[in-house]
Amino acid sequence: MEAKEQKRHQRKQSGPKAERKKSRKQRAPGAEPDEDERRRNPRAFAVQSAVRMAKTFHRAQDLKTKKHHIPLVDRTPLEPPPVVVVVVGPPRVGKSTIIRCLIKNFTRQKLGDICGPVTIVSGKKRRLTFIECGNDINTMIDLAKVADLVLMLIDASFGFEMETFEFLNILQVHGFPRIMGVLTHLDSFKNNKTLRKTKKRLKHRFWTEVYQGAKLFYLSGMVHGEYQAQEVKNLGRFISVMKFRPLVWQTSHPYVVADRMEDLTDPETLRVDPKCDRTVSLYGYLRGTYLKNKGQVHIPGVGDFAVADVSFLPDPCPLPEEQKKRALNQKERLLYAPMAGVGGVVYDKDAVYIDLVSSHVDQPQAEMRPTAELVQSLIGTHATLDAKLAASKVSLFSGAAAMTPGEQQAPLENRVWDPVTQRERRKAVFSDDEEEGDARRGQDEEEKAPRVKRQRLERVEAKPPVEMPAFADSEDDLEMSGDDGEQSEEDEREGAEGGTADSGHCSEEEVDDDDEDEAEDDNEEKQDGKEEEDDEEDDDYDDDEDSDMETEVTAPVNISALRWKEGLAQKASEAFLRQQQAAPNLRKLVYGGVTDDEDADEIGGLFRVSRPEKSRSRRVDAMDCSRFVPDSPHDWDQEEVLNSIRDCFVTGKWEESKDAATLLKEDEELYGDFEDLETGEVHHGKPAKEEDSEEEEVMVKEDAEEEQKKKRLEKKRRLKERFDSEYDDGDATYFDDLKEEMQKQAELNRAEFENIDDEARVQYEGFRPGMYIRMEIPGLPCEFVNNFDPHYPIILGGLGASEGNVGYLQMRLKKHRWHQRILKTRDPLILSLGWRRFQSIPLYHIEDHNGRHRLLKYTPQHMHCGATIWGPITPQGTGFLAVQSVSGTQAGFRIAATGVILDLDKSVTIVKKLKLIGYPYKIFKNTAFIKGMFNTMLEVAKFEGASVRTVSGIRGQIKKALRTPSGAYRATFEDRILMSDIVLLRSWCPVSVPQLYNPVTSLLQPVGQKDSWSGMRTLGQLKRDLGLRNKPNQDSLYKPVVRTKRHFNPLHIPKQLQKALPFKSKPKQDQKKGKTPRHLQRPAVIREPHERKVAALLTALSTVHNYKTKKAKAEQHAKHKEFLKQKEREEMEKLKRQKEARKKMYRIMGQKEKKRERSSLKGSSKDD
Amino acid sequence: MASQGLTYEGCNFFRQRLVLSTLSGKWVKIKNIRSKDDSPGLQDFEASFIRLMDKITNGTRIEINQTGTVLYYQPGLLFGGQVEHECNPQRSIGYYLEALLMLAPFMKKPLRAVLRGVTNDQKDPSVDTLKVTSIPLMKSFGIDGEGLELKIMKRGMPPGGGGEVLFTCPVRRTIRPVQLTDPGKIKRIRGTAYSVRVSPQIANRIVDSARSILNKFIPDIYIYTDHMKGGNAGKSPGFGLALVAESTNGMFLSAELASNPQGQGSPMLPEDLGCNCAKLLLEEVYRGGCVDSTNQSLALLYMTLGQQDVSKLLLGPLSPYTREFLRHIRDFFQIMFKIEVQKQEDESRRGGDKVLMTCMGAGYANISKTLK
């Protein structure tokens, strides 16, 4: 029989059935089933089991609540700072290339060396800051703390490298920012199948590390040294629509990724001491949260510093103003990267390089761009209001007219071949010091030539020659012949003079403050016009200063020093006019005059103004009391005074909106129209007549209209609220309420300071995240400036209250499972905690069941343990990671441990076990005198009552100290101890944590050696380095065991005791028998040969007999067994039979029973 | 690592400086303490206060020079737990308690402090007042729960003292921002008239006189009479009245008056005391605001230490103590308040001008509390 070919199913392509199917398919899988489906098949939706239903419901609710995050107040600023995109990856993976491609994609500009952060405007609402992360673990740690998005580059031809995993772990510890993997070098795969397989393998590994479904991007190949434009575009799109979750540390701390650095140190002090501490100003966008002025910041790699001053600057890379178009135009695609030399200007630490585009780029663009950018950047520098900057090297242009392309030939160029960018860089050399330039050129070239991607050790000594600013006097000629360094110093000194002129002005103001201080003693009520005067002068000064600033912006610096004297009389008169109008300002009263007037008292640094100290001294030593007793109390017997507070009581008049009568009326208006169903009467609310009349008045009174509108809106809102509360409350959960509350708070936060101008707002809120700020930091070590390398990020992390202090930190720590060795107590470890990286000495401990923290010698293998260090106070719950060294690269996984801060304290509670040993020197029954455990009576006294133990396990107690020998004591035991016993006292001894806090100062290392910081070495390393070996304890060595023969003394029983013993135990009886006396010894029997034969035969016979009996016995045994089995079988048989019989009988009996029952039932029914 | 610090002069605002120093972690140095006085240096009650600070903290470093005119205070971490303190009778327990109220929510362990000394005197806010005003204020900042309690075990009047107060407070990690801009209207007035070691009739006389004035405004007045006897009555005789007015929005305004200490000043009539105290309360109502004048600084401190959100608070005129406190807050936390005066219209009968204080919290978190 052949298999019949069945007709295959034909799917309908059209018609009602196909339509229906299509519609069903189109419906989203999660969507609710149609109503008619429920109706059509009600049984499928019926409740089968209540328990099951409860379970499913429960589970669904569980899943739902699991999705909830704790609602946070949305504190993201309206104009957020640029998103920090950190590009990481091992060397030669294509980090710089991808940044370059992305920048080109967004701004159509080419960047050479990616040096420092690069900020661009990527869209209408988003800016990006790209930072390249080198392969140094210090850099990786620092950048992981500030990253919003991480582009993790992976060389697909090689696979994952250890750095990638290390970086992932660092991210995990410091809050998990968004991560995007990018696979590069995919063009190295010739075989398509291996490519696919590799992609899949890498993808899945990446997913296990980040999360299932994490985005992994593929960059398939290079075209002319760049990635394919379409792929880069896609990547750019992904970046510009990405959303970010707030990270705890970042949202609770302000921070700045500095993109510009300037040295402001006074050149004179620099000349006197080139190694003096520097004052440096750092620029960057503020991120995280509000930054308060005069706070403390930590610069990772340098240390903690107090901020001298913060000021905000106009945004160098602002978002476009109007938002009409879909895309940005060319002008709005801004790029800002002061360290990377955008637009041909490179700010170096003490020079400015001008980079002209080389010949192979098309000329018109080259002419257009650099000049425009140059001018722009110069304007930018002036706008910083920084006098020092004006005096720095850039000022050479301000004196001269703006440079035109034709004039570019004026400075001589110094061509330097840059092998990295494959183009010539031309250094600008001006004709003024041609000779010097010539002399140095050769050297320059030598040094410049090997300028590779990372700057190497030697720093270019030559500074570019500079034209003197306009105010240079005749002496400058002399200076010119000297070192260039001095020139710049001179410039800056000039700038500083300008500053002192300002400060001279300042002192005047401070004197004013002083007056104000005195005036302040007066009570608020008695505040007189004098106060106002001072305040106004204050104001005046501010204005004055502002105008100064402005002049600095517009005019060359030289005149600014004398500017303030201009138009003094006019200003004074203006101030007077204003103070006439002004009302007393409470803010000025509180905050205006609290500046410390110590300095203001001095005139010219020589004389001290003697002021009557009466009021001040009275104030400073007055009684400290919070009660506010009125000076001039009201007379509460008068009726009008009483009336003045009448409305503060519920019995008084209420406001219009809250009055009970009004509320009632409103209700009537809202719910006015109703029909009484019982009577059929229809009630109408009052028709709103006002509106009609209002329409007539519209032309006349627009204010009234507005008011009415507001009122109506208010009414509507209230009505809606009431409606919501009535109808939504059933659904509103605690979570919803909380969210709503947070929402309200966020709105308030935004609205509160919105309308104040930035100057004042900054004082209330601090600097907003998103502002471009300048921070002036004094006292930085000179190495920071000397060894500055823009490739390493400079982060200014703000510190919260008391985070600048040091104390003991208790943390939960776990050795990383990939780190090969366990960690030893007291081995120094480098921790990354908060903003900081520092070396400290941890003590590991574990908590016993009774809450005691017992010291551990090593970290446990696969378990958390406690650790205590001496380190910076950091809020609890902050994660940290530990590495053993940050220098170079070592084999294996570098992250040694991770953990979290649990507790901060100023004292430690770790203990270790201590066993004190002593020896008995006199023993009476259960009492013994022990010596050698303590040294003095006092020590013993402290341990009275402590329990002791012998090695053999006899327990005892310390009773009392003995006078001699000192440190000996009397102890009682549960049994008599031996003189050979050792007595132990187990106790716990507190351990002190070594107070080592050694910040990792990697940024201070010389250029090129920044990854070679090494701190305190571990004991093991020291021994290895010095070739030392530990001398073992002689007692711990194994030696051949020599056992001396033990000699026992004969047992001696006293006579008395002997007498008392029972007869059998008397030692006489117990005596050894000794040799049998001769006469008792029996003679040996010697057999004759015949007898021997007989005996042998008898033995043989008996053997045979024995064998036979044995055999017979075995047989008998087997038989008996068989018999027993048989018997058992029969027994079973019998039981079976009996059982069956019984069964039969029972059945019959049962039937009978049933019958009887039935009959009885019948009988009863009959009875019924 | 050099931590930041501040230097001040003179002994005034001594508590503020130490409290803010402890909270902010900045050291403080106070110079020229009564340097030109007949008895220079720190006085006994200040020394006692320093000792109390030492008891509730761990790792605090205090250095005082020979004459006691210079104090260096390096704060440790707030520890809390069981604390017993013998307060110096020169100042009442309120002096010490005000600082404890500021610090208590930020301890490592919930504070349970037993303070012994003078419970009511004429200089400082009494324990009765703090109990009825500060505790509800703390509740509005999210510091609540059954652990928050202020209990007067024994009463002690100056100069002898002998009172005992139990203060317990739970620990919080963060403080909630508040918007207290509407004080509402006063709906009831409560009070305590106390008398120790004098005739129990005195309390009743105080009540009658106080009611006679307050009844003009509101009928809902109840003044408890608290007469303590024997061991609970302390060592010196005295009497007094503490009044509190509660508004519809749960705000409390208080006033209080105590008799002159034994042997100092002329004896007071209980009727006068009652009347004066009632007038003081009216004065306080006239000043108005959501917080009475003694608690202004406490409320402002909690606003400062809140999360990074906007807090608003309506106050009456700022007391000199509060004004200095605001300056100190700026020194220690770099937080400035937006101060807006709300003028009252002439026809409105709602007391004097009010001040609306607005600030952005410092985002302060309790760093002492242990994470489990």
From TrEMBL, chain A:
Start-end of Acidic residues biased regions:
473-494, 509-551
Give GO MF terms, alphabetically.
Answer: ATP binding; GTP binding; GTPase activity; U3 snoRNA binding
Task: Provide this UniProt record's keywords sorted from A to Z.
Answer: ATP-binding, GTP-binding, Hydrolase, Nucleotide-binding, Nucleus, Phosphoprotein, Ribosome biogenesis
Top-level taxon of the source organism = Eukaryota
GO BP terms in the entry = endonucleolytic cleavage of tricistronic rRNA transcript (SSU-rRNA, 5.8S rRNA, LSU-rRNA); maturation of SSU-rRNA from tricistronic rRNA transcript (SSU-rRNA, 5.8S rRNA, LSU-rRNA)
Where in the cell is the protein located? Nucleus, Nucleolus
Q: Does the keyword Cell inner membrane apply?
A: no
> What are the residue boundaries of the Bms1-type G domain, all occurrences included?
80-245
Q: Which SUPFAM superfamilies match?
A: P-loop containing nucleoside triphosphate hydrolases
Positions of the region Disordered?
1-43, 405-559, 679-714, 1055-1091, 1107-1168
Q: Where is the composition biased (Basic residues)?
A: 1-27, 1136-1146
Per the UniProt record, one Pfam family is AARP2CN
Catalytic reaction annotation: GTP + H2O = GDP + phosphate + H(+)
GO-annotated cellular components? 90S preribosome; nucleoplasm; small-subunit processome
Q: Which SMART domains match?
A: AARP2CN, DUF663
Mind telling me which InterPro entries this protein's record contains? AARP2CN, Bms1/Tsr1, Bms1_N, BMS1_TSR1_C, G_Bms1/Tsr1_dom, P-loop_NTPase
- Ranges of Basic and acidic residues compositional bias? 421-430, 455-464, 680-690, 1112-1135, 1150-1168
Family as reported in the entry's similarity comment? Belongs to the TRAFAC class translation factor GTPase superfamily. Bms1-like GTPase family. BMS1 subfamily.
Protein name, as recorded: BMS1 ribosome biogenesis factor
Taxonomy of origin reads: Eukaryota, Metazoa, Chordata, Craniata, Vertebrata
Automatic annotation (TrEMBL), chain B:
List the record's Gene Ontology CC terms alphabetically.
nucleolus
Q: Which domain of life, per UniProt? A: Eukaryota
Domain RNA 3'-terminal phosphate cyclase insert, chain residue ranges per copy: 181-285
Query: Chief subcellular site?
Result: nucleus
Asked if the record carries the keyword Nucleus, the reply is yes
Parts of the chain that traverse the membrane = none
Q: Name one GO biological process term.
A: endonucleolytic cleavage of tricistronic rRNA transcript (SSU-rRNA, 5.8S rRNA, LSU-rRNA)
MF annotations from Gene Ontology: RNA endonuclease activity
**Keywords assigned by UniProt, alphabetized:** Nucleus, Ribosome biogenesis
Domain named RNA 3'-terminal phosphate cyclase: residues: 7-339
Tell me the InterPro entries matching this sequence: RNA3'-term_phos_cycl_insert, RNA3'_phos_cyclase_dom, RNA3'_phos_cyclase_dom_sf, RNA3'_term_phos_cyc, RNA3'_term_phos_cyc_type_2, RNA3'_term_phos_cycl-like_CS, RNA3'P_cycl/enolpyr_Trfase_a/b, RPTC_insert
User: Where is it localised?
Assistant: Nucleus, Nucleolus
**Job description of the protein:** As part of the small subunit (SSU) processome, it plays a role in 40S-ribosomal-subunit biogenesis in the early pre-rRNA processing steps at sites A0, A1 and A2 that are required for proper maturation of the 18S RNA. Activates BMS1 by promoting GDP/GTP exchange. Does not have cyclase activity.
Q: How does it assemble?
A: Part of the small subunit (SSU) processome, composed of more than 70 proteins and the RNA chaperone small nucleolar RNA (snoRNA) U3. Interacts with BMS1.
Q: Which family does it belong to?
A: Belongs to the RNA 3'-terminal cyclase family. Type 2 subfamily.
Q: What is this protein called?
A: RNA 3'-terminal phosphate cyclase-like protein
List the source organism. Scleropages formosus
